[in-house]
Design goal:
By secondary structure, the protein is α+β, with helices and mostly antiparallel strands. It has 17 helices and 6 strands.
Length: 547
């Protein structure tokens, strides 16, 4: 679940059915990156909606008829054009010419995906990028709907192809989202089919559609290359989240890489091209100077984005960063808080949500909870302080299994299941995205066992391995622990086929779980159900202790 989702889909069960998480490039950044909009999003994203008949006629964003910044609350042909452009990039908005919560959310998602500072304001940089990275396309239509043919083949045009192309982009394939099934799309389909063990015939039938919707975990691009989580020099041959972030940033600078977290020849060529264009030594090694250049001027400045980030320990930042300030120091602060699971809008403005995130972080690290970002908090943000080992306040971990078991039988797409998304700032039907880790986040929130929330399996594993948020890895599982599955093996949780649940019972190498977004044992709709699992069944398992 590592790419956000206007379209995240249900998970494909382990090696044989439904239960894995997917994410891709482009749009799929972290689900809930923008908690500042979470309360508003419920009004927003409409998957596969057709343009509203009453929408004002579209006006080119760069014309004199449109304001320098298009912002929430406006209604005009400029907003109609904006919504059409966002849909061409996979947003799935209803085109009504009204800049509401759904459009704001889509703008922020697009800005994050294209390395523009995330402020939700459509200024010169965002306008330019929208036109540079694609034109208009028919509104996407769910591939499984009756409006789409049983087999979508080369030569087809329309919203079903728009949806197909958007899903391919989520999976990391650099196709244009234009609604036209051409040779490039056919090539990407065949490559995707091969990667999933399907017949590589280029025809998008039932099996391919299911595979497109059913994988939801790929490398996170939420890591900051300048943080201690990434090596000082990122070079060819390396892989992981830092490489995924690098690829995403390079794409934001005009490259067209698959965000696959693998530093291969194409990524090397892109790095060298960027270095040459930036007046740097084109050696292909991504060191401090190249990292600084990649992050420089993201957002365009001039009020059209967040101020460029500034290291909190530099002389440019005050000894204490506090609520009310707006600067590159705050941009950096918000970015670092997000790396620790805060899910803030990165706008450089230290408001109430940032203050709350700082206080939560300080509580997790055993620091004085005052909302002031001084030397100790800065050090902890950069990873210099070991998290406390004391249990979460209230002992909420003891209630994890009770709360999870009470949800057994909740069916995917029901109002109850859809409410789980509130824990990660997401308002979508659970029929339309992979929600196993969202369910775990919801249980954690209900019990207060951990303040960590993440809709990606990889995030839970990463934080447990780091010992953050009262999470740790255990080899002696017990009821109430969290369990993560890597169906592809390797325990790296970046291969595109992962799942997560809560341990119910343990007996030797066998155990049972309570899982969200899992197959109904009776064969009906997916939902929250008890499943039987084992540690010796050909997939890798990581048990996570919450204390």
């Amino acid at each position: 679940m590592a790419r956000l989702a206007f379209l995240a889909r249900s998970e494909a069960e382990g090696p044989h059915g439904r239960d894995a998480h997917r994410t891709g490039t482009g749009w799929r950044t972290r689900v809930g990156t923008f908690a500042a909009t979470a309360a508003m999003v419920s009004a927003g994203v409409v998957i596969g909606a057709q343009p509203a008949a009453a929408a004002p006629a579209p006006i080119r964003l760069t014309s004199a008829s449109c304001p320098a910044e298009i912002v929430q609350g406006q209604t005009s042909g400029c907003v109609t054009e904006l919504q059409n452009l966002l849909n061409a990039h996979g947003a799935g908005l209803a085109v009504d010419g009204q800049f509401g919560a759904g459009t704001l959310y889509a703008v922020r998602e697009y800005q994050a995906a294209t390395a523009i500072a995330v402020d939700g304001r459509v200024g010169p940089a965002t306008k330019s990028k929208l036109y540079a990275t694609g034109g208009s396309a028919p509104a996407p239509v769910n591939l499984n709907s009756s409006a789409c043919p049983a087999n979508i083949v080369q030569g087809a045009k329309g919203g079903c192809v728009t949806e197909l192309q958007r899903l391919l982009r989520h999976q990391g394939y650099a196709v244009d989202v234009d609604g036209d099934f051409g040779a490039g799309t056919a090539s990407a389909v065949r490559a995707f089919q091969s990667s999933r063990g399907l017949t590589a015939d280029g025809q998008v039938g039932q099996a391919t559609k299911r595979a497109l919707y059913d994988t939801d975990e790929s490398p996170s691009t939420s890591l900051d290359l300048r943080s201690s989580s990434c090596p000082e020099n990122i070079v060819e041959g390396q892989s992981g989240g830092c490489v995924a972030t690098l690829q995403s940033l390079l794409n934001g600078k005009g490259q067209s890489l698959d965000v696959d977290a693998s530093f291969g020849p194409r990524t090397l060529a892109a790095v060298k091209a960027f270095q040459s264009a930036s007046g740097l030594t084109a050696d292909g090694a991504v060191g401090p100077t190249t990292k600084a250049a990649l992050y420089a001027n993201i957002g365009g400045g001039g009020g059209n984005g967040a101020p460029a980030p500034v290291n909190l320990n530099s002389a440019s930042c005050p000894n204490e960063i506090v609520q009310g300030q707006r600067s590159g120091c705050v941009t950096e602060l918000q970015s670092l808080l997000n790396h620790h699971g805060a899910d803030l809008a990165v706008d450089g403005d230290f408001g109430a949500l940032t203050d709350s995130a700082v206080r939560d972080f300080q509580a997790e690290k055993g620091l004085s909870v005052d909302g002031h970002v001084g030397p100790n908090t800065k050090a902890a943000l950069y990873g210099a302080v070991t998290p406390p080992s004391s249990p979460a306040p209230g002992g909420g971990y003891a209630k994890i299994l009770d709360v999870a078991e009470a949800e057994v039988g909740t069916v995917e797409g029901s109002a109850r299941a859809n409410s789980y998304g509130s824990s990660v700032g997401l308002s979508l039907s659970t029929s339309n995205y992979a929600w196993c880790a969202t369910f775990v986040s919801w249980v954690a929130k209900q019990t207060g066992a951990s303040s960590y929330r993440n809709s990606y399996v990889s995030g839970w594993v990463k934080q447990a391995r780091a010992g953050n948020y009262h999470l740790s890895v255990t080899t002696s599982p017990q009821p109430g622990d969290i369990v993560a599955f890597d169906w592809d093996g390797g325990s790296d949780f970046t291969g595109g086929n992962e799942h997560i649940g809560i341990v119910r019972t343990v007996s030797g190498s066998s155990f049972t779980t309570v899982e969200g977004n899992t197959g109904n044992p009776n064969g009906d709709n997916d939902g929250v159900y008890v499943r039987s699992r084992a540690t010796n069944s050909g997939y890798d398992v990581v048990f996570i202790r919450v204390r």
